From TrEMBL:
Residues 112-311 form the Tail specific protease domain. The lineage of its organism: Bacteria, Pseudomonadati, Bacteroidota, Chitinophagia, Chitinophagales. The keyword Lipid metabolism does not apply. GO terms for molecular function: serine-type peptidase activity. This is Tricorn protease C1 domain-containing protein. SUPFAM superfamilies: ClpP/crotonase. GO terms for biological process: proteolysis. It comes from the Bacteria. SMART domains: TSPc (SM00245).
Length: 333
């Protein structure tokens, strides 16, 4: 009887040790090597702009793959993957892993900010008011509209109500500096109010795969006017490097209207459509699945050039001046 008890205890102990040992072994599909391989291969099969970015993705693999082994820590794996993705210089490329976050921001960090809302309110537009997140004001006969985002917190009704308050303006400044994008429906709703007729605005070209140059046929983007309230007056759109993604689209669309001029710095770009992919370890990979082409055939990934290139100098910043707003305002006086 004692021997039977001993055998049972031994078997139980052996089973427990085996179970603990298994718990310490990573699932092969979640290993550092497997995660790296999956990330690289997903980008290889789905990312849309390797040729435009002049990036040799297999060569990138040969550079970064030797840095990953079965013993690589999560922190090191995240660092290497982020460094590899940064090569693409694409603000729609990101890697999210809990508190670890890589989002490429090099499209604006090396340029002057060229925007300070507090300076605008204090020195130029002390009567600024808000309708939701939309700011608006008038100075003489010049109307001013600030759209900080095209995301969920921007309501189309707020844009409409703010524009109604500017209805007696003989010219208009639309400020989208620091607007990093959001939903295309909000962009369309705003753009349509400044159009006279249905227009071709851009083409979206999606990656088909598996080759880096395998794409579906271009999808033409057309938009029809919503009303004619703002088609007969001069409009200046203020831009900086932080105008990105769907805001970049808005700037492209407005630039094609004959009564509109762009003032400021080149926009930050971001013409691709962002898609998501969950890696085996739960990390979220974001990438550009398409590229956007202007009606003239130009890829807008690197931004839209302004009609008038204006930038705040260090002296402007120290003296609390907004050279971009001042230029547009003087032109519209």
């Amino acid at each position: 009887m004692i021997n039977i008890v001993r055998i049972c205890l031994y078997a139980l102990l052996l089973f427990s040790l085996t179970g603990c040992e298994k718990a310490l072994i990573k699932d092969p599909v979640e290993s550092p090597v497997a995660v790296f391989e999956k990330l690289w291969s997903v980008m290889d099969a789905r990312y849309a702009m390797f040729d435009y970015k002049q990036t040799d993705w297999p060569e990138i693999y040969r550079k970064y793959r030797p840095m990953i082994t079965a013993q690589t820590s999560n922190d090191e794996l995240f660092r290497v993957c982020s460094e590899m993705l940064a090569v693409l210089k694409d603000g729609h490329v990101a890697l999210l892993a809990g508190e670890r976050r890589f989002i490429y921001n090099g499209y604006y960090t090396s340029s002057p900010h060229n925007f300070n809302m507090e300076v605008l309110k204090k020195k130029y537009l002390p009567g600024m008011r808000y309708q939701g997140i939309v700011a608006y004001a008038t100075s003489g006969k010049v109307g001013y509209l600030y759209i900080p985002s095209f995301r969920e917190d921007l309501l189309a009704t707020d844009m409409d109500l703010a524009l109604q308050q500017l209805a007696h303006s003989t010219s208009l400044i639309i400020d989208v500096r620091d607007n990093t994008g959001g939903g295309s429906a909000k962009v369309d709703a705003l753009t349509a109010q400044f159009m006279k007729e249905k227009m071709l605005l851009k083409y979206d070209i999606y990656r088909k795969g598996p080759g880096h140059n395998d794409f579906y046929a271009p999808i033409a983007k057309y938009l029809s006017p919503q009303n004619n309230a703002w088609t007969g007056i001069p409009v200046f759109v203020l831009v900086n490097k932080r105008c990105f993604s769907s805001c970049n689209d808005f700037v492209l669309y407005m630039s094609q209207l004959t009564n509109v001029k762009l003032v400021g710095d080149q926009t930050g770009g971001g013409g691709g459509t962002p898609f998501d992919y969950e890696l085996p370890n739960g990390w979220l990979l974001k990438y550009s699945a398409s590229m956007a082409i202007s009606p003239e055939g130009e890829n807008i990934e690197d931004g839209i050039s302004p009609d008038y290139r204006v930038s705040n100098s260090l002296e402007d910043d120290s003296q609390e001046r907004d050279a971009i707003f001042q230029f547009a305002f003087d032109k519209l006086q």
